[in-house]
Design brief:
The structure holds two protein chains of two kinds. By secondary structure, chain A is mostly helical. In chain A, 54% of the residues lie in helices and 8% in strands. In chain A, a hairpin with an 8-residue loop joins strand 1 and strand 2. Chain B has one domain: START domain (Alpha-D-Glucose-1,6-Bisphosphate, Chain A, domain 4). In chain B, strand 3 and strand 4 form a beta hairpin. Chains A and B meet through helix 1, helix 2, helix 5 and strand 3 of A and strand 2, helix 1, helix 2, strand 7 and strand 8 of B.
Chain lengths: 120, 154
C-alpha cells in the first residue's frame, strides 16, 4: 500500500478521526483517550497502532503512560492530493462550460460562477 | 463520540466544488454519462481523451485514457456506485500508477440541482470515504459528528 493509501485507510474510521481530533488539542495518555469512547483500552490501543503505523501519531517512550501526540506533517500529503484534484476539476469544469456553449450556440453565455470554498 | 471545540468537520479533507452551468439538468446529465460527451470536456485544456468506455449501471465500470500535451498516456477509471438520473452520480475514481496498477481509490459524488434552465453541480471527492465503504463500516458520512481537528492551522 502506498503512503497516501495508508493515511486514508487510517482515516477511514470515525473513531480514529475522533482520536485525532482529541490529540489535536494536545498530548494525551491512552487512558484519557479511551474515556469518551466507551471502549476498552485494548480496543483503543488497536486504533492507536493503526494511526501510529500510518505516521499520523507518535507515542512517547515512558512505558506506563506512553503519551500520544499528533504528527501534523503526515496530513500534508492528503492536502496536496486534494489540491491536485481541485485543480483538475476546475480545469474540467472550465472545459465543460466551453463545451456547453458550443452545444447551445443560441444560449445566453453568462459569466461563470465558481465557488471554491471547502464545505463548511 | 462527542463533538469538541476547536475542531472542524472531518470532511474538511473532502474536496467540494460547486459551479452553476448555463444548461438544463438533462443536458448536464448527458455530459456526465455519455462517452462521446465525457471525452469532450473531462480533461484539462491541451489534453485529449482518445479512448473511453463506460457501463452506466450500478457496479458497471468506466475507463478512459487521457493523453497529456507531451503525449504521455494517463489511464483512469472506476466503478459506478449510484445512478439517480438528473440528481446524483456516485463513482469511484482511480488513476493507474506508473506500473499500470490501480492507485489510490477515491469516491466522486456529483449532485445535480436544476435551477430553471441552469444547473448547479456540487462535486465531492474524498479519499477515505472509499476505504470506509469498502470495509463496510461507513458511519453516516456527512451526517455524523465526527470531527477532525484543524491541524494545519496549528
Amino acid at each position: 500500500m502506498d503512503a497516501l493509501s495508508a493515511t486514508f485507510s487510517a482515516l477511514a474510521d470515525p473513531t480514529r478521526r475522533a482520536i485525532l481530533a482529541r490529540l489535536a488539542l494536545g498530548e494525551t495518555t491512552v487512558m484519557e483517550l479511551a474515556e469518551p469512547f466507551e471502549m476498552s483500552l485494548p480496543a483503543v490501543s488497536k486504533h492507536l497502532k493503526v494511526l501510529e503505523k500510518a505516521g499520523l501519531i507518535a507515542r512517547g517512550r515512558e512505558a506506563q503512560w506512553r503519551p500520544c501526540r499528533i504528527e501534523v506533517n503526515a496530513l500534508k500529503p492528503v492536502d496536496d492530493w486534494l489540491e491536485n484534484y481541485r485543480r483538475l476539476w476546475e480545469a474540467r469544469f472550465d472545459r465543460l462550460e466551453d463545451y456547453l456553449r458550443e452545444l447551445q450556440p443560441d444560449g445566453k453565455p453568462k459569466k461563470k460562477e465558481s465557488k471554491r470554498d471547502r464545505k463548511k | 463520540m462527542t463533538a469538541r471545540n476547536n475542531v472542524i468537520e472531518a470532511d474538511d479533507r473532502t474536496l467540494v466544488i460547486e459551479r452553476t452551468f448555463d444548461a438544463p439538468v438533462e443536458l448536464l446529465w448527458k455530459m456526465w454519462t455519455e462517452q462521446e460527451h465525457i471525452a469532450k470536456w473531462s480533461c484539462p485544456r491541451g489534453f485529449t481523451i482518445p479512448e473511453g468506455s463506460g457501463d452506466l449501471r450500478v457496479g458497471g465500470q468506466w475507463r478512459c485514457c487521457m493523453v497529456a500535451p507531451d503525449g504521455a498516456k494517463l489511464w483512469l477509471g472506476g466503478v459506478y456506485r449510484e445512478i439517480v438520473p438528473h440528481k446524483r452520480l456516485v463513482m469511484t475514481h482511480v488513476w493507474d500508477d506508473e506500473n499500470g496498477k490501480p492507485g489510490h481509490e477515491t469516491i466522486v459524488t456529483v449532485h445535480f440541482e436544476a435551477q430553471g434552465q441552469r444547473t448547479r453541480l456540487t462535486l465531492h471527492q474524498t479519499g477515505f470515504d472509499s476505504v470506509a465503504s469498502r470495509d463496510g463500516h461507513m458511519g453516516g458520512w456527512g451526517e455524523c459528528l465526527d470531527k477532525l481537528a484543524e491541524l494545519l492551522a496549528a
